[in-house]
Amino acid sequence: MIDLHSHTNKSDGSLSPVELIALARRKGLQTLAITDHDTLEGYDEAVPYARAAGLELICGVELSTKFRGQTVHILGYFFDASSNREFRGHLSCLQTARKDRNQRLAAKLRELGLSIDVGEVERLGRSQAGRPHFARLLVKKGYVSHVQEAFDRYLDESAPGYVERKEASLENVINWIHQGGGFASWAHPVRMVKKSGAPTESLFREMQCKGIDAIEAYHSDHSPQNQAEYLAAAAKLGLAVTGGSDFHGDSKPHIDLAGVSLPAEALEALRRIRPGPASQP
Ligand code: AMP
Ligand code: FE
Ligand code: FE
Ligand code: ZN
Known about the structure:
Structural class: alpha/beta
Strand content: 5-15%
Distance between the termini: 31 Å
Number of helices: 11
Shape: globular
Largest sheet: 7 strands, mixed
Radius of gyration: 19 Å
Bound molecules: adenosine monophosphate, fe (iii) ion, zinc ion
Helix content: 40-55%
């Protein structure tokens, strides 16, 4: 079995890298990609444990950006993890932007009358402290009764507490991945396909013009119909396909590691991708 989408507690998953590798072995996975949001720390820490367990571990990352004005996630995969020093520099800029946003968000919440100190949030979320940690703190302090209420009343893009985070453009995100020696896949396209109402094939084609190499056709949020549709559209356009569970541990308890598996032929096709501008149509 092959699972190319998982998170550790270095981003918003609940398992440490060593715990994730142990679970991957128990599930019988042959190949696992760690795709934390904005960081390679979880992958780096997991490397020796995966080697000891005889598990193929692929270096990945999940980055947020905007496409047609909406948030989309782009997965970057580095089958040769050695050549991404410059890419790591871009990730550290994203961490700086996140820290700056967190300061401004805490100040905004204080303006709204809540007693929130950014240090408290960073203790909860460490290098990846973000809105989910603000939400948990608001619950802990009794300002709201659950996390969703924290988003609805304060943290959602449409709520009064929202502040912008400096994000890279879609083109930049894809270029960084290519220049780092990786290839880019559009994560869980179902979210955008459903919201936009535009035909799947035209969205995929537009993404392909931005330089995307693959589509995440297999994902826990995809129905069998979604999957079949995305596979057909990707094949028609000559895009590769990726897939995985998007396992987050206790943070998303309904998703099992290896609950979605990428077919071996698809993994072999990914190994043949030569990343870079040449992959654009
Ligand atoms: P951040 O990267 O710190 O801006 O936080 C983004 C994360 O917050 C997303 O990955 C979601 O897990 C969560 N999130 C964003 N908007 C909402 C919402 N309206 N309701 C629940 N969770 C949300
Ligand atoms: Fe996540
Ligand atoms: Fe995602
Ligand atoms: Zn994910």
